[in-house]
Design goal:
The protein is α+β, with helices and mostly antiparallel strands and 412 residues long. It has two domains: 108 residues, no CATH class; 198 residues, Roll (C8orf32 fold). The chain has 13 helices and eleven strands. The strands form three sheets. Strands 10-9-8-7-11 form a five-stranded antiparallel sheet. The protein has a four-stranded mixed sheet with strand order 1-3-4-2, covered by helices on one side. Strands 5-6 form a two-stranded parallel ribbon. 39% of the residues are buried.
């Protein structure tokens, strides 16, 4: 009896299925054309939909996996870049050297102020361990996402040009929830040479800052520091430790990061508020500064001024105290740097204070190199700096640096 019912049910299913197929076929062959729908397009669409469905059934997590398995072996987002690896939480040690007693003035260290409280605690810890030259892996006080760690590391780098021995590459460990739990810093100066390097570095910083501080106005201090650094160094993409102020001030050759970080530090030492900016210029990664003069912020790009000056054979101030609007045709701030003060004032532009210099329209902005053009340059009006009339500081012999591991492309 059961077999008879099963056979009847089976035959009934075949009849119903056949009837459904005939009905669908009738709709496709007769009804759809009657209302203007192409039969071939309909069949093609159905086949594509079935194929896509089969693909999802065979591997339903394909699209999800593409996002969940993004490359966590390299963390980018600024000058500081890291490589990550999985880390078992059970092997973590307690955080040490947390830097919780450090305090940072938001006017001097603006990037820290942009971070969350958890990030700020890790910022303090990174700073403390960099200051202590800790080469060991350490557990961070708060677990962070990779993006949060990137912002934190870059904030430390951007705020502290005095940490010239800190490399721009680092390593980190993340747990099963993809939260960063450990960090390992790397350094560009060997520990045995660090004290000598600090002494040489501080001598140059103190000498320029002392001379700049003898001037009474902000603009005179700024111009003196600008000229001193440009006189002391030259652009060299192969310079050792070139992401540091040390390369500009002691080695005498650097790239944009070195110019900008040297300017930032000496301005700070001379009582001027000055920040380090990263972004792009003429399509490439770049670094420059904004500086507060009499309460207003201005853009300053020593790298391009010095490159133009060396090509021209005379001091040039084309990128000295410009507004954001003036800079926008060839400079764009990074996401972090865009949160710093805007520059809209023109009162302390070079032209308004000292007279004309080479105009941007006269320059082919190809790496800051000067070309033929209708140049006009005049001797600056008083007050003037006297750096060129003094014996320039002689760069010390380059310190022996440790390789940076070939990690990220550096700021040029």
């Amino acid at each position: 009896m059961k077999r008879k019912h099963r056979l009847q049910a089976f035959l009934k299913g075949i009849i119903i299925s056949f009837a459904i197929v005939m009905a669908v076929e009738g709709i496709i062959l007769f009804a759809l054309p009657a209302i203007g729908i192409d039969v071939n397009d309909t069949i093609s669409y159905v086949n594509e939909s079935i194929s896509a469905a089969k693909g999802l059934i065979a591997n339903p997590k394909t699209e999800i996996d593409k996002t969940q398995t993004s490359d966590r072996h390299k963390l980018t987002g600024g000058p500081m870049e890291g490589t990550g690896a999985p880390q078992e939480s059970s092997s973590l040690s307690s955080p040490v050297n947390t830097g919780e007693d450090y305090t940072f003035d938001t006017e001097i260290y603006p990037y820290r102020a942009l971070l969350s409280s958890d990030q700020q605690a890790v910022y303090n810890q990174i700073y403390a361990n960099a200051l202590e030259y800790n080469t060991e892996t350490f557990t961070i006080v708060n677990s962070l996402t990779e993006s949060e760690l990137s912002d934190t590391m870059n904030s430390v780098f951007n705020d502290h040009p005095e940490l010239f021995w800190l490399n721009t590459s680092y390593k980190y460990g993340y747990d099963k929830s993809n939260k960063v739990v450990q960090v390992q810093l790397s350094f560009g100066v060997s520990q045995s040479q660090l004290e000598e390097a600090k002494s040489n570095f501080n001598n140059v910083v103190d000498t320029i800052a002392a001379a700049a501080s003898s001037y009474s106005s902000d603009i005179e201090k700024e111009l003196y520091i600008h000229d001193a650094i440009c006189e002391l160094t030259t652009y060299d993409s192969n310079a050792s430790l070139n992401q540091s102020a040390y390369s500009a001030l002691v080695s005498g050759s650097t790239v944009c990061a070195g110019y900008a970080r040297a300017f930032q530090l000496i301005c700070q030492q001379s009582g001027l508020t000055c920040y380090y900016l990263t972004g792009t210029a003429s399509g490439g990664d770049h670094a420059w500064n904004i500086v507060s003069i009499d309460g207003d912020f201005y853009n300053v790009d020593l790298t391009w001024d010095d490159s133009i000056s060396e090509s021209y054979g005379s001091s040039v101030y084309t990128y000295f105290n410009l507004t954001d609007a003036d800079m926008s045709d060839d400079h764009t701030r990074s996401e972090l740097a865009s949160q710093l003060p805007s520059c809209t004032a023109t009162t302390m532009s070079y032209e308004n204070v000292y007279g004309s210099t080479i105009e941007k329209d006269d320059i082919e902005n190809n790496g800051g190199q000067i070309t033929d053009g209708n140049f006009r340059i005049e001797e600056p009006k008083e007050p003037v700096t006297h750096w060129q009339n003094k014996e320039p500081l002689q760069p010390e012999a380059p310190i022996q640096v440790q390789p940076d591991g070939g990690f990220p492309p550096q700021m040029p």
